Write the structure tokens for this entry.
Amino acid sequence: MNKSVELYEVIRLIRPVHRRLARAVEAKLNGTGVTVGMRAVMEVLSEAGSLSVPDTARTLFLARQQIQLLMNALEEGKFVERRPNPAHKRSPLFGLSERGRTMFAEIRASENDEMEMICRQFTEQDLRSSQQVLCAMLDHFADYEDDPDRPRPF
């Protein structure tokens, strides 16, 4: 076994897995009024609590403008609420509304059902090993991450 060849095969699988996951999430969201991008923002707010648009953008490694559009859509759908930001007068905090918390809980419950089916194929050690490999790659390639609002040229 050549470990570098095996790792490369893992890397090659990341893109198609990501695409299929995005499509699966999109299909599950059909009829909810929530898009894949909105769902990502809702997840961050569910985990972190109220955040500003720039903080949410940094968390998701997306441009602030993209997050602002998603936050606007979430606010229009009454999934988030604006809150005062004591640290910055012009950049409000956004938090999930009661409707947003309820919707995100329903989305996660539906996703968990799917995860339970997939998990039957793996041991806990399989999953821990997968996480370990992916975390090691994130750490190793951390130098290539930059500010999404000011991307460096390739």
